[in-house]
Amino acid sequence: MRFQTLWEGRAIFAVVLVLGAAGYALHWPWLVALAGGAFCFCLNFFRDPERKGSQDPRDILSAADGVVTEIVEMEEGEFLKRPMRRIGVFLSVLDVHTNRMPMDGKVTYMNHFPGTYPGPYLDARHKEVSTKNEALTWAFEGEKATLVVRQITGAIARRIVPWRQLNDIVKKGERFGMIRFGSRTEVFVPLDFVITVQPGQKVKGGETVIARMP
User: Fold this and answer.
1) Cβ 91 vs Cβ 64: under 8 Å
2) Is there a catalytic annotation at residue 183?
3) pTM of the full structure
4) Widest CA span in the chain
5) How does pLDDT run across 99-138, given as a tens digit for each residue?
6) Cα(59)–Cα(8) distance, rounded to whole angstroms?
7) Which CATH number is associated with domain 59-212?
8) Which helix (H) or strand (E) holds 175?
9) Most buried residue, 6, 37, 71, 154, by CB count within 10 Å?
């Protein structure tokens, strides 16, 4: 466990511990058991294992754990403003939610999008989630290419935590942030990159190669 990742869940852990203490004081074993289960769930959610992926500069690593939901060619209209290939990964509540650098690079762009409406957010697997839910877009400039990565919140708990700042130099596989609970991460790569994953495939952030430079 990394302290920085666990610290992001401090309020949740505090509530769970208070519930457990209250159940113990009131002699309510069901509440103690409920708090114990919730504590174990939170420990599992905020786990943050070390990863060691390919160090070949041509290999692009997944930015997140989860399942590849789509690989589509489309216009990246926020930063680079040109056709790219978008690789979308859905993160369930059982996945590691730390996001990692897909390649060595410099943070050249960060933009927070608050979402389009005050009501319930869309499920992270919905086709319109990229334009409706709260999101944080990053651009990472490497020696030979620039990638755009988008962190998108899901429908349950919605909190994006950035751990890097504009102009930071970040190495491949290093953590740059996390999303709390169900969510989605998108990586935009140039069209001439060779895609090495397919929809439905399980990937690990900082470990699975999702694309390769030509």
Assistant:
1) yes
2) yes
3) 0.88
4) 65
5) 999 999 999 999 998 877 665 566 556 666 666 788 899 9
6) 30
7) 2.70.70.10
8) strand 175-180
9) 154
Determine which one of 54, 62, 130, 183 is catalytic: 183
Tell me which H or E stretch contains 105. Answer: strand 105-113
For 14, 102, 108, the CA distances from 171, given in Å and listed in that order, are 33, 9, 14
* Per-residue burial over 28-55, b = 16 or more CB atoms within 10 Å of its CB, e = otherwise: eeebbeebeebbeebeebbebeebebee
Whether residue 152 contacts residue 183, with contact meaning beta carbons closer than 8 Å, is answered with: yes
List the chain domain ranges.
Answer: 3-45, 59-212
Q: Position of tokens 């957010």?
A: 121
Does residue 176 contact residue 198 with C-beta atoms inside 8 Å?
no
Q: Which two tokens stand for residue 137?
A: 């877009």
Nearest alpha-carbon partner for 184 in 102, 95, 106: 95
Reported as a single tens digit per residue, the pLDDT across 45-70 is 888 899 989 999 999 999 999 999 99
From first CA to last CA, the distance across the chain in angstroms is 36
DSSP 3-state of 57:
coil
